[in-house]
Amino acid sequence: MIGPKGDKMDITESTNQPKKVSPKKSGGIDSELSKLGNNLVTKFHVLMRITQIYDSKNVALNQFVTEFLDTINTLINREGVLSLKIIKNDFFLNDQPLRYSVEGFTSFKYLLTQWKKRLIGEVTFKTLMTEEMLRYFIYAFINLEEGCEENANLLKKQLENRHITSIEATPLEVVEDDEEAFTLQKEDQREVGKKIFFETIGTIKEVITNIKGNQHADVRKLKRLAQKAIHLVIEDESILLGMTMIKNYDEYTFNHSVNVSIYALAIGKRLGFSKKTLAELGITALLHDIGKSKIPREILNKPAALDNEEWELMKKHPLAGVEIVLNLKQLGEINPRMVVGIFDHHLTSDLSGYPKLYRKKEVSLFGRIIQIADAYDAMTTPRIYKKIPYTPEQALALMLLEKAVHFDPLLLKIFIGLVGIYPLGSLVLLNTREIGIVYKPNSDGNCLDRPTILLVDRDAEGNPVKEMVSLAETDGEGNYKRSIVKTLDPYKYHIDIAKYFL
Ligand SMILES: [Fe+2]
Ligand SMILES: [Fe+2]
After folding, report:
1. Ligand nearest to the CA of 253
2. Given strand 167-171, what is the order of strands in its sheet?
3. pLDDT of 324-357, one tens digit each?
4. Is 252 in contact with 208 (CB distance < 8 Å)?
5. Is-above-0.85 flag for pTM?
């Protein structure tokens, strides 16, 4: 559904003046509220788990109730009232969509499942709470019978019996989907994709932290996650490719490893790799920068250019990575391809890369795949020393310029086919004067310029409206309904592309 013409973003070819979209209106929630909301969900999750272990009188519970109370009351003090509500698969805090942080993913998932099981769709806290009120509420909530449609009413009555009238619950609204079952299945896959993506980031973080602290790193989980990712990539690579748009500035190393792995797997799939080879490639890509765990944080996060000494240290990360991987016993059988792939991910066949070699060497296939994935992700991610990254289109253009000397031209061609002529995540202006985000490349190689677009629009009240359209769609006379006029820079329009892929 699109709002009346007058409400559309006014972007015209003639003036070419971007109209600023305020962060709030572009579908966001202010960052402090978002932090508090994430905190609320985490505390709610922890408390729900604890209440399943201890009875309501147990002192072990006190600390958790207090923390939950603090978060709730901070929010009520700020907002006057606090409503947490589920719409489809998202939580809304006082009617604003709540985006979860990487760390918050498990809590969001847990809460969503538990609420849905109990058919509770919204809980409102209308006045400041006390510990006793919350303690009673959480036990009443946890003891609701799964699947009972009367739950919201029952909860209300139970609370009223204790003279608690300032907590209200409403039943879950089952959204009647008019789309086909196919779409629902796609939604499920997207949820699976999110789960794999965030779990892998969490796991790689654990592995890197342990290696840093010279502790035992458990990589079996990483292997399992890589297997799951491969299944999904084989079925529909666009889901995980979409996830790579989620660029987390603070968690660069972890996000980067996962993104490089997704790109590498998608390239490997196009090359017809077996599942076994894909698994090796996926793990190699996940661990390609593991050697950086031995480089001081100050150097990794230095906002300025590295001096000579620092740069020499930085150049040691491929070799350090090889050493680490060879010592990871749980990786099981290590194929030499994996070790070599890590070793030469910054090597060029003309010896201009690093580590320094004295004889020319062909860069391995894994190495060449990872180089492309690595460069593309690094260029399109904001970094401490380059806060505004290249747009996907600019990054590809730069890589093409370098192709003769650096990137494997055939692999680069495959990669461009993957992310499209209009790469995934590009912001584009259409000939209908609508603007949108390239959401999924066209799977037909002859129609690479006709991807699926997520229109970014507003309804009459100024709320963001999302609509998915295929540029391959034609009208009755066979003319394309919409075409791309040009790409736009999302930073100029204050549009956070990542949000649209979550
Ligand atoms: Fe690297
Ligand atoms: Fe890298």
Report:
1. 2
2. 96-97, 90-93, 82-87, 120-125, 167-171
3. 999 887 777 778 899 999 999 999 877 788 888 8
4. no
5. no
